[in-house]
Amino acid sequence: MENKKGNKKAVIGVAALAAAVVVFAVIFLVFRPKPVEGSKSVTIEVVNQSSETESYPLKTDAEFLRQAMEEAEGLTFSGAESEYGMMVDTVNGVKADYTADGAYWAFFVNGEYCNYGIEEQPVLDGDVFSIVYTAAQ
Q: Is the same domain home to 27 and 44?
């Protein structure tokens, strides 16, 4: 009798977990960033550790920020690839090393922190992206 109750609880637990996974998958599909196809005019600004700004205006068909960054003439960047996309640590030859001094590159779109990584941040016509060297406080 005790074993049947244990099995029933296990089945209910697995069913609840499966239902939760389905709910979160549906929520992600509904609310995920949606790219816009077609030509767009955007600007990418890089603010270095000396607060000097370099601007890269471009016309692009890119749907996501990384594609636009790759198209921006003169802009260079690199970082570590992960399952979540690229973690940018170097922009225009300037490395931000969080483990050494707490510095990192912050990404903004139209003055607000980007909600997604560069792989999934949508590019919309008129967007101004800022990549800002940010030192530890």
A: no
Helix or strand or coil: residue 75?
coil
| The pair of three-digit structure tokens given for residue 37, joined into one six-digit string | 């196809």
pLDDT on residue 71: 98
d(CA 8, CA 55): 62
Chain segment 38-63, per-residue pLDDT in tens: 799 999 999 999 999 999 999 999 99
- The structure's pTM equals 0.75
Co-location of 22 and 52 in the same domain:
no
Where residue 130 sits, what CATH number does that domain have? Answer: 2.170.130.30
Q: In the chain, which residue ranges form alpha helices assigned H by DSSP? A: 2-31, 65-71, 98-101
Give the domain extent around 60. Answer: 40-134
Q: What percent of the chain is predicted at pLDDT more than 90?
A: 69
The pLDDT of 32-39, averaged and rounded, is 69
Are 81 and 67 contacting, i.e. CB atoms less than 8 angstroms apart?
Answer: no
Regarding whether 59 and 8 lie in a shared domain, the answer is no
Residue 40: name the closest of 60, 57, 69 by CA.
60
